[in-house]
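Inverse folding, one chain.
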């Protein structure tokens, strides 16, 4: 309710909140966390101070200025050798040819027709001309004259040879001269032919694949020499007839060839070169070669090339990040009474997470895993801090700080930060550590799907194939499962040791079978019923404004445990006899307000978290005990003794948090509405409004950080809850007799 202005001084903790030993450990752990990411990641991935010689400073044939050794062994992909091997594999695939059955059938028919014409007793010059139109006019004329000049027996020999040689050529494959010459220019020596022809008259084809030397292929240019060497009787005439009649019946399949070559190209795995630890890259005063420079470049790619200026810059950057996190921490949760203890816990978890990260980096470096981001257990501290403090902002702060630290890892970039931060923050919002079993399982499934989707998107942005990120997907799933399991195991021990109001601790305290609540139920039944009602009212109101509802619920159950020692002096436990009638107002007030101090003592004896004890202590603040103050004023009129306002008020601090204010309002509203003689919704609303107006006017909510909007929401919640609890019902026959 009060207005406070921002100042940098407010970023510093108050002296009373931090002891010297706490300050020492906070500073020590902060320094350790910074040094972790300044030194150790570079130890796994390279030389922190870089190399004395840079590849950009060297030239071929100059003398090496100093010795250069490989500090840690590494492996790299030899791009040049890999490309050469892939090119050779692609070139090793022969050009792919296949038979054209329709062309083959056409050639067979033309040869048969030409043979029939030649075998006739009286050769028809006209029919012969029609069959050899493919020849130039001069060559066609000489061919016709050559055939016509032969006698009948010679023509039969010619016709027989035409059929025999045509059969051999068609069966072996008749190729295009242009295609063959093009292959020869490309340096090809052989081709692959799918299938082979058998029984040429019917042109049936088999599915076998055979390889042929290009020099043995039949083309228009090679027919003459083939026929001559084969001893054909009329080799020249026969060549002209075959060239004129046949078309190439084998064609080049460029698509099939390209696919086979691409497959062969992709089948070659990258050539990995392994450089062992301690290998000498350069020797002083020896001549530098291009291979030396290339290897030095690879070494630089696998080492942190930080000079002194860069190291100092990184150190300043980490210090600023740490200080910014420190500032956010001290300002984001002003009502926390144990900031120093929580800060130490935060830094311990941060240091432990860094240690696990470094172990992960060690193994990813050792086994050559380049996609190391999914192996980092950032989610461990994120889950732990957000659930330990019941505030997601702690988890977000933790994820942000550690993700920025991870940018100091060699090969990390802004994408690395975004992946680590977004995945961890998503885990905070999706994961539920409490609730029924179905909700827990479903939340874990959502988180796993979130991690998988984010990992796929992260690596797709970097154009990394799915095969390469398969291990990373498995690592991401195992990572979140292990982080969740470790958090579940560690949290009960940590919140038990520090007595923190975690979800698990508060859930345990909610049980009505705790010894303190059992004792309250036995000794002060009315107070016990009142506490149950206050707990419910406070829980609903806290939910309505987004405060810590579970803390309010637990504080509501225990806020009046101080009444256990003197239960009969509180009206809810009285049965018609009021012991205060026998006491003076001063004594009655002392008994009434002592229940706050006794409640604090009993809470500490029972091991309640200090946050719950603070709410017990502040649930009345310094409010006036109105009834006995009025009694004292009446007595003053008779005796003349002055009555001091403060003597009839509670002597506890006023609420310093929203939860404490909610508990005060719920307690007062519940008690006030119990005093109503006629309980109607209108009467309840007026009574609650009166109670809340009185608290505001007295300044009891000035330090609670509650604004007017939240007060209206709390008022509406209290009215709804109390009205619903005091609902009416229809009368049943016989109820009138019970009322008499």
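Residues assigned per position:
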């Amino acid at each position: 309710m009060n207005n406070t202005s921002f100042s940098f001084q407010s970023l510093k903790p108050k002296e009373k909140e931090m002891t010297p030993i706490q300050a020492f450990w906070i500073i020590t752990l902060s320094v350790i966390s910074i040094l972790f990411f300044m030194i150790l990641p570079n130890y796994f991935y390279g030389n922190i101070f870089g190399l004395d010689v840079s590849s950009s400073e060297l030239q071929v044939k100059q003398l090496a200025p100093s010795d250069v050794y490989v500090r840690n062994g590494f492996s790299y992909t030899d791009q040049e050798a890999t490309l050469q091997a892939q090119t050779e594999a692609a070139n090793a695939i022969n050009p792919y040819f296949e038979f054209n059955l329709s062309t083959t059938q056409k050639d067979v028919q033309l040869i048969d027709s030409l043979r029939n014409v030649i075998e006739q007793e009286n050769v028809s010059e006209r029919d012969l001309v029609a069959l050899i139109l493919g020849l130039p006019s001069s060559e066609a004329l000489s061919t016709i004259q050559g055939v016509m000049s032969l006698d009948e027996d010679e023509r039969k020999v010619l016709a027989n040879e035409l059929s025999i040689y045509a059969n051999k050529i068609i069966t072996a494959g008749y190729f295009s001269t242009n295609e063959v010459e093009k292959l020869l220019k490309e340096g090809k020596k052989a081709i692959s032919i799918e299938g082979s022809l058998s029984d040429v008259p019917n042109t049936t084809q088999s599915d076998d694949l055979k390889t042929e030397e290009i020099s043995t292929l039949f083309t228009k240019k090679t027919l003459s020499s083939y026929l001559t060497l084969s001893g054909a009787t009329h080799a020249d005439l026969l060549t002209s007839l075959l060239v004129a009649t046949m078309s190439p019946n084998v064609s080049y399949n460029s698509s099939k060839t390209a696919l086979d070559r691409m497959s062969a190209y992709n089948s070659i795995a990258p050539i990995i070169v392994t450089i062992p630890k301690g290998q000498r890259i350069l020797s002083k005063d020896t001549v530098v070669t291009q291979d030396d420079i290339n290897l030095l470049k690879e070494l630089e790619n696998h080492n942190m090339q930080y000079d002194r200026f860069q190291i100092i810059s990184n150190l300043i950057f980490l210090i600023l990040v740490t200080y910014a996190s420190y500032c956010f921490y001290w300002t984001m949760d002003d009502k926390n009474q144990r900031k120093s203890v929580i800060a130490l816990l935060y830094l311990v978890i941060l240091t432990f997470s860094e240690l696990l990260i470094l172990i992960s980096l060690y193994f990813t470096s050792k086994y050559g895993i380049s996609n190391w981001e999914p192996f980092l257990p950032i989610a461990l501290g994120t889950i732990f801090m957000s659930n330990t403090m019941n505030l997601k902002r702690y988890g977000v702060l933790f994820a942000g700080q550690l993700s920025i630290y991870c940018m100091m890892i060699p090969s990390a970039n802004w994408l690395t930060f975004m992946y680590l931060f977004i995945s961890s923050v998503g885990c905070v919002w999706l994961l539920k550590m409490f609730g029924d079993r179905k909700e827990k399982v479903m939340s874990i499934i959502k988180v796993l799907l979130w991690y998988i989707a984010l990992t796929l998107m992260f690596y797709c942005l970097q154009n990394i194939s799915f095969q390469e990120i398969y291990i990373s997907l498995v690592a991401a799933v195992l990572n979140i499962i292990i982080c969740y399991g470790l958090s579940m195991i560690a949290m009960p021990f940590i919140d038990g040791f520090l007595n923190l109001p975690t979800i698990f601790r508060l859930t345990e305290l909610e049980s009505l079978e705790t010894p303190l609540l059992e004792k309250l139920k036995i000794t002060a039944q009315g107070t016990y019923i009142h506490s149950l009602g206050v707990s419910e009212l406070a829980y609903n109101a806290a939910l309505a404004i987004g405060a810590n509802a579970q803390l309010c619920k637990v504080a509501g159950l225990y806020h009046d445990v101080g009444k256990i020692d003197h239960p009969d002096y509180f009206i809810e436990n009285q049965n018609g006899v009021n012991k205060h009638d026998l006491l003076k107002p001063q004594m009655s007030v002392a008994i009434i307000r002592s229940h706050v101090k006794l409640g604090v003592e009993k809470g500490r004896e029972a091991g309640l978290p200090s946050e719950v004890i603070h709410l017990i202590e502040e649930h009345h603040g310094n409010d006036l005990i109105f009834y006995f103050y009025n009694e004292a004023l009446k007595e003053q009129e008779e005796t003349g003794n002055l009555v001091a306002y403060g003597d009839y008020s509670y002597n506890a601090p006023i609420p310093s948090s929203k939860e404490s204010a909610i508990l005060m309002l719920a307690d007062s509203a519940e008690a006030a509405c119990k005093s109503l003689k006629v309980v109607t919704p209108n009467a309840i609303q007026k009574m609650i409004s009166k109670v809340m107006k009185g608290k505001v006017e007295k300044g009891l909510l000035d330090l609670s950080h509650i604004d007017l909007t939240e007060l209206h929401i709390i008022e509406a919640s209290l009215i709804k809850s109390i009205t619903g609890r005091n609902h009416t019902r229809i009368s049943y026959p016989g109820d009138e007799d019970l009322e008499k």
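Strands lie at 68-69, 74-77, 96-99, 190-194, 197-198, 204-205, 209-213, 250-252, 272-275, 280-282. The chain has four domains: 8-46+305-348+370-483, 55-78+271-301, 96-261, 504-659.
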